[in-house]
């Protein structure tokens, strides 16, 4: 018996805990995503939605305060924040039948919150602890993708201590292995924060100093001339891949400013790829999802090197942006699943997995 049929038989609404905000740099994006999801769920009598806002310091707020945040579409003012509060969960947590975490970045999308929800013994939307943690850590992700035979750009992984012991040796190794330009990234961070494109040794050393200030583990990737395409995945054991979307931009690379400044990037759906390339992207997206033990949803990002016809996997995003204008829901809308139905499907998948 499915979760949907059980719910229809009992006639009682499913109490959905909408969890948003969080401690990452994507706090504000999370609020916008949660507002869109709350609006979609509010039209269905099957659900009773209780929002839970997480302040930037990790404090959970009650549904009443959280609803105010959703209504305003922005985080609380400094005067409205709870301060010096020990970690506690609002009493309304006990009423929740299913959690819908809408959290992006570290301390939200990296498996920490998923572990907490698992301890509550309630179903939750999206990926579990393993997929979430692997999806957030670029070094672990790339190692797993490599083991699965998924083609990637060349990269070098190292930590802050290794770099400090032999900066010249590592610089020479990176130059010999990757060349310039290359990209320096913190291993465990989202939203393109701390990422630098470098063209010489001086820039390389400055970029590594910057990246290691965010995370002691970093990754350096070879620069490629490629089109950036994305594919949405939906499902559990038998995931489906959406149509392919493409991101175009005029800046040097798809950095934080380009990603979150209106007008600096365009989303093209569907991407004008040859059929065999689109099919390869879809197949690789599903394989990547299954390789990390994905469940519910993910967006998988690729480089298409048009000069050689090569498709390279870039990363998997285990809870992508979910505003009405975000790539993930727009890809599924084009593929025949409108936003409201997409939210329903994710809830059903969570019940199915439980």
From TrEMBL:
Annotated localization: Cytoplasm
Chief subcellular location: cytoplasm
UniProt entry keywords in alphabetical sequence: ATP-binding, Cell shape, Cell wall biogenesis/degradation, Cytoplasm, Ligase, Magnesium, Manganese, Metal-binding, Nucleotide-binding, Peptidoglycan synthesis
Residue span(s) of domain ATP-grasp: 142-348
GO molecular function annotation: ligase activity
InterPro entries cross-referenced by the UniProt entry: ATP-grasp, ATP_grasp_subdomain_1, D-Ala_lig_Van_CS, D_ala_D_ala, Dala_Dala_lig_C, Dala_Dala_lig_N, PreATP-grasp_dom_sf
Gene3D superfamilies: 3.40.50.20, ATP-grasp fold, A domain, ATP-grasp fold, B domain
Highest taxon of source: Bacteria
Listed pathway(s): Cell wall biogenesis; peptidoglycan biosynthesis
PANTHER family: D-ALANINE--D-ALANINE LIGASE (PTHR23132), D-ALANINE--D-ALANINE LIGASE A (PTHR23132:SF25)
Record family assignment: Belongs to the D-alanine--D-alanine ligase family.
Protein name as it appears in the record: D-alanine--D-alanine ligase
Organism this protein belongs to: Pseudanabaena mucicola FACHB-723
Lineage of source species: Bacteria, Bacillati, Cyanobacteriota, Cyanophyceae, Pseudanabaenales
Gene behind the chain: ddl
């Amino acid at each position: 018996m499915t979760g949907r049929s059980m719910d229809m038989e009992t006639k009682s609404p499913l109490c959905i805990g909408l969890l948003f905000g969080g401690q990452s740099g994507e706090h504000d994006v999370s609020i916008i995503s949660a507002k869109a999801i709350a609006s979609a769920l509010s039209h269905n009598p099957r659900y009773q939605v209780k929002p839970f806002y997480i302040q930037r310091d990790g404090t959970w707020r009650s549904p009443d305060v959280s609803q105010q945040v959703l209504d305003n579409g922005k985080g609380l003012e400094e005067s409205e924040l709870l301060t010096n509060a020990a970690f506690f969960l609002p009493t309304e947590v006990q009423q929740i039948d299913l959690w819908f975490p809408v959290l992006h970045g570290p301390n939200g999308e990296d498996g920490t919150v998923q572990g907490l929800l698992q301890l509550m013994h309630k179903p939750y939307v999206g990926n579990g602890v393993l997929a979430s943690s692997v999806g957030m850590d670029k070094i672990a992700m790339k190692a797993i993708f490599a083991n699965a035979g998924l083609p990637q750009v060349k990269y070098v992984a190292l930590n802050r201590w290794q770099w400090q012991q032999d900066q010249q040796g590592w610089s020479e190794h990176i130059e010999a292995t990757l060349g310039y330009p290359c990209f320096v990234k913190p291993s465990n961070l989202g939203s393109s924060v701390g990422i630098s494109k470098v063209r010489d040794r001086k820039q390389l050393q400055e970029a590594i100093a910057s990246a290691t200030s965010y995370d002691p583990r970093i990754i350096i990737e070879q620069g490629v001339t490629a089109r950036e395409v994305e594919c949405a995945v939906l499902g559990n054991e038998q995931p489906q891949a959406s149509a392919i979307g493409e991101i175009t931009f005029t800046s040097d690379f798809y950095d934080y400013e380009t990603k979150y400044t209106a007008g600096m990037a365009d989303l093209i759906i569907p991407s004008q790829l040859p059929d065999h390339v689109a099919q390869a992207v879809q197949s690789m997206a599903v394989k990547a999802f299954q390789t990390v033990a994905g469940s519910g949803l993910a967006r998988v990002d690729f480089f298409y090197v048009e000069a050689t016809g090569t498709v390279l996997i870039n990363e998997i995003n285990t809870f992508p942006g979910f505003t009405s204008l975000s790539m993930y829901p727009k890809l599924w809308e084009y593929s025949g699943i409108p936003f409201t139905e997409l939210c329903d499907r994710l809830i059903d998948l969570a019940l199915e997995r439980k």
